[in-house]
Structure formats: C-alpha cells, structure tokens
Design brief:
heterodimer; A: 167 residues; mainly alpha; Four Helix Bundle (Hemerythrin (Met), subunit A); 2 domains; 73% helix; B: 374 residues; 15 helices
Chain lengths: 167, 374
C-alpha cells in the first residue's frame, strides 16, 4: 500500500516539478510549484513524519506560495505567454539537470547509511520543543536563538521599509 | 453492535459511549475478509463517502439555518413555501444549482479557473478530518493536530486568489486580493489564540485536548486568558472564513460577488459549500478547544450530576455546542456593519495581535504558577 502511494506521489511530484519549469505562463508555473510542494508534504505524511509535513504545508504551501502568488498578481505581465525556448537551450538545461540528478542519486546510493534496530516511532512535539530549547547533547538552543534574532531583524527591517516617511 | 462499553475499574468513569469499539469492530470485520491493502483502501473510501455525505447534509442545514436566522433578525419569516416552514428550500436550490450551465469568461485561464474551486474545497476537506465528533470518531488524530489544522486551513486562500485572477474580471481580482490580505493576517490570531489552550492542555492532539476537559471546560478552568483567547478566536476566525462583518472580499454593494462573481453551477456550489463548511469547522474547533468538544458538562465533585450528564450521548453535546458557536457567528454577521479594509487591517495588526501575544505570555505564566483549576 505504502509503496503504491509512494510511487504515485513521487511520479506526480516529478511531473509537476517538470511542468513548473516548462510552463510558459508564470501563474501556472506557480500553481504547479504549489502542487509539488503539497506532494512533498504528502510524502512526509506517508512516512509518519507529521510535524515536518505540517510545517512543510504551513510554511511552503500556505505561506511562501501565497506570497509568490500575491507578488505575481502585482506584476505587469501575468497573462503574458512567454515564447517557447530555443531547442539548444532545452537540450543544454536538460543535460545539466540530468548530470545533477545522476550525481545526487549516485552520492545517496553509495553513502553507507547506518540502519537502526529500533522500530520507527512518531516523533512527539514535546521532543522537538525540548530539542529546540536544551543546551545539552542534541540541543539546538544556539541555532534556534540565532534564527529568532535574524527573523526579528527581518521583521523590524520590513516595518522600517514599509513605514510612511512624514516630512 | 455493542457500543456502550463496560465501565471497568481501570477505565475513567466519565466515558460511557466509546465509538472506538465500533470502529475497531468494523476494522476487524473488514480485515477478516480481505488483506491489509484492500482493508485500507475500503476504509479510505468509506471514510471519504461518509465525509462527503456529511458535507452535503451540513451544507444544506447551514444554508437553511442562515436564511432563517437572518430573516428572524430582520423581522421576516424567511423561506416558507417549499415544505413546512420552508425546510426543503435549500434542497430545491441545490437541485437548481446542479442543473445550471457552467459558464466561463472569454480569455480566462481555463485550467486555473477550473482548479481553483477544488483547491478551496480540498483544503476544507483536509481540515475536517481532525475534528473529534465523539470518542473514537475522528479520522486523523495526529499528535500535531492543531499545527496540522492551521497548516491545511492556510491552503484555501490560494484557491481564492487563483479564482479571482483566473476569472478575468476586475471585481473578482479586487475581491481576491482583499480576501488574501485578510486571511493571511487573521491566520496569525487564530493560531495564537489556539496556542493559549495548547499551553493549558499541554498537548496539540485534539483527543488529548478534549480528554483534558473531563473535569471542566477550558473556558472556565483557564479563566481570564482563555476567555480573551476565545473572543479573539471568534473575531479572527470569522474574518478567516470571509463572513460578515469581515466579508469585504465579496461586498455585494461594491464588488457584485467578489472572487466568485464569474462562477456558476456546481463550481459556484463548491465555493459556497466550502465557505459554510469552513464555518462549521471553525465552530467545531471552538467547541472542541474551549467548550470541551463531545465531553459532557461536568462540575468538579458533583458525582450524581456528572453521572446524569454522562448519559447524554457525545454527539448531542458536540453538535449543540457547535450549533451554539455557529449561531453566534450568524448573529455577528447580521448585526454588525461591514468594516473597511484599513479598519480591518488596523484591528488585526494594532489590536488583536499585540493583545494575543501578551495573552500567550499571561497564559504561560498562569500555567507556570498553577493558578488554574485542574
């Protein structure tokens, strides 16, 4: 069952990823990107990695995609249909991405992954929270705080840029 | 089938109706007939069919209820012709809607125009699975339930944006942009308001949140912060479902019908149904998180009273609480005047969000000090 679903999702994911880069209308490309991001979340759900799947849906599909669609809607030529690519360029980019894919697949297949005897168990949100805030072993307090400060700086920067200047 | 479980010493006494036994019996019965793969397939199809028919049923009831509530608030009678008190009016409307021609505007992007209603309805379909209707009747009981709900409910706005643009109509596009700005901003408040109850319950799993309210609902166990959170949740979620007084995405007097102006027939019905189902989902989440969901009304140590309440089935509790919240939302819609877009964004960013952030800190402090009823 899981295998069938995996191949279904993975196949659709490949199809929509190719459509994203080959679509000649910008908003359609955004929609295909949305589909591939949702399908990535579906793969996480398939592996019972619920937290990651929810975060993927919330940040990428619900957050970044909304921003992309919003900014596309604010641009001039949304309904402009781009000219089809030159044949030479298509061949060149196809070759380049093929080389990239082969390299990545080769590295993954040749890497000696250690298998654990423990059964796969769903990760509880408590563990993730403790991991974020502990400074012992397996603690992520430093990256967590650094990213928090970065986000705060970005937020303040956005407000300063968007603020009306009164003269 | 025996759905009233034996009350054993180990099991908590307040649960008489356990539908988990019914569902596990069905699972065993299906497993005895076929292998695991087909059992999962059949179960998925069954759950899908149940939810689809539930959608149609709840949609019909809510549209009728909305028209009646609106009519009574405006001193009218509402639909009266089809059936006694007009109860078959929505069914007649639905049949009419199904037979309408599907129109499409010239030069519209056909693919996006057709895909948009599906995005909206699938987003609400993903969200309804998390709602616990009774003990054991819940399609998706994730340990990140609240986070999952917030993430799938943020998908619907994409359907609205695409519908507005693909219609090739300026009213639709303005409506969609307003709706997008509104949903993106109010999502924050909905999430933070739910966070307060997550802090109190100590879990994001909906079944655990309901279970933690066996001795009393959070709305009075958690007193001040939860009451503030409930008020903010009601305001923000009404805005998130694009309902009045926040319905400027489809303000009739300015934008004809907003993002779904160009839709007709079944595609319009999808938007309409999704809007009402989102209202139902929001109301049932409010009922689950603040009013104990299917948990009966319990008061501390009044054993006789609590036991009497236990005999009322959980469905009755769940749907009466949900209907109460839905009635509140309808009451808002027909009482308050519509906000302007700048007032709407001011309300969210300058009032609700700061209050909410302070409220989360207050809730964390109260939980830390243990100043709440357990």
């Amino acid at each position: 069952m899981k295998e069938v679903l995996f191949y279904l999702f993975a196949g659709l994911l490949l199809l929509f990823s190719i459509l994203t880069v080959s679509s000649r209308k910008i908003l359609r490309a955004a929609v295909f990107l949305l589909f591939s991001l949702v399908l990535t979340a579906a793969l996480y759900f398939l592996w019972d990695y619920l937290f990651m799947a929810s975060v993927q849906l919330m940040l990428y599909a619900g957050g970044i995609m909304v921003l992309i669609v919003f900014s596309v809607l604010l641009t001039h030529n949304i309904d402009h249909k781009f000219d089809p690519m030159e044949f030479k360029k298509i061949i060149f980019s196809a070759l380049l991405s093929l080389v990239g894919a082969v390299t990545v697949i080769y590295v993954i297949l040749s890497h000696p992954f250690k298998t654990s005897a423990l059964a796969a168990a769903p990760i509880s949100p408590e563990d993730i929270g403790r991991g974020f805030l502990s400074y012992g072993e397996n603690g992520y307090i430093l990256p967590f705080e650094v990213i928090s400060i970065l986000l705060l700086a970005a937020m303040i920067g956005a407000i300063v840029i968007a603020k009306k200047t009164t003269k | 089938m025996n759905i009233i479980s034996q009350v054993t010493d180990s099991a908590p006494k307040y649960i008489i109706y356990d539908f988990g036994i019914l569902t596990s019996r069905i699972h065993e019965w299906l497993s005895s007939m076929m292998n695991t793969t087909w059992t999962s397939v059949v179960e998925m199809v069954l759950i899908g069919v149940v939810f689809l028919s539930f959608y149609a049923l709840v949609g019909l009831i809510l549209v009728y209820a909305e028209r009646k509530v609106c009519a009574f608030i405006q001193c009218r009678l509402g639909p009266m012709r089809v059936g006694p008190w007009g109860i078959f009016q929505t069914i007649a409307d639905f049949i009419k809607l199904l037979m309408k021609e599907l129109l499409i505007t010239r030069n519209a992007d056909k693919f996006l125009f057709n895909v948009a209603p599906f995005i909206v309805i699938i987003a609400s379909f993903l969200a309804i699975g998390t709602i616990p209707f009774a003990k054991g009747i819940q399609a998706l009981d994730f340990n990140v339930g609240v986070l999952y709900l917030m993430s799938v409910s943020s998908l619907g706005v994409l359907g609205i944006l695409l519908a507005g643009w693909a219609s090739n109509n300026k009213y639709s596009l303005i409506g969609a942009m307003r709706s997008g700005a509104q949903i993106v901003s109010y999502e924050l408040s909905v999430g933070l308001a739910l966070m307060v109850v997550v802090i109190f319950a100590g879990s994001m799993q909906f079944s655990e949140i309901v279970q933690s309210q066996a001795t009393g609902w959070w709305i009075w166990k958690g007193h001040i912060p939860v009451i503030i959170a409930f008020v903010i949740f009601m305001i923000a979620s009404t805005a998130e479902t694009n309902r009045g007084p926040f319905d400027l995405a489809e303000a009739e007097s300015e934008l004809t019908a907003g993002f779904h102006t160009e839709y007709s027939g079944i595609k319009f019905a999808f938007f309409f149904l999704a809007e009402y189902m989102n209202m139902f989902i929001i109301a049932s989440i409010a009922a689950t998180v603040f009013f104990g969901g299917w948990m009966p009304l319990h008061f501390g140590n009044f054993a006789a009273f609590n036991h009497a309440m236990d005999y009322i089935p959980p469905f009755v509790w769940f749907f009466s609480k949900t209907m109460f919240v839905i009635f509140l939302m309808m009451w808002f819609k027909w009482t308050f005047p519509r906000l302007r877009i700048d007032q709407l964004l001011t309300l969210e960013w300058k009032y609700l969000l700061p209050i909410n952030l302070v409220n989360v800190v207050l809730a964390a402090f109260i939980v830390l000090m243990g100043w709440y009823l357990i």
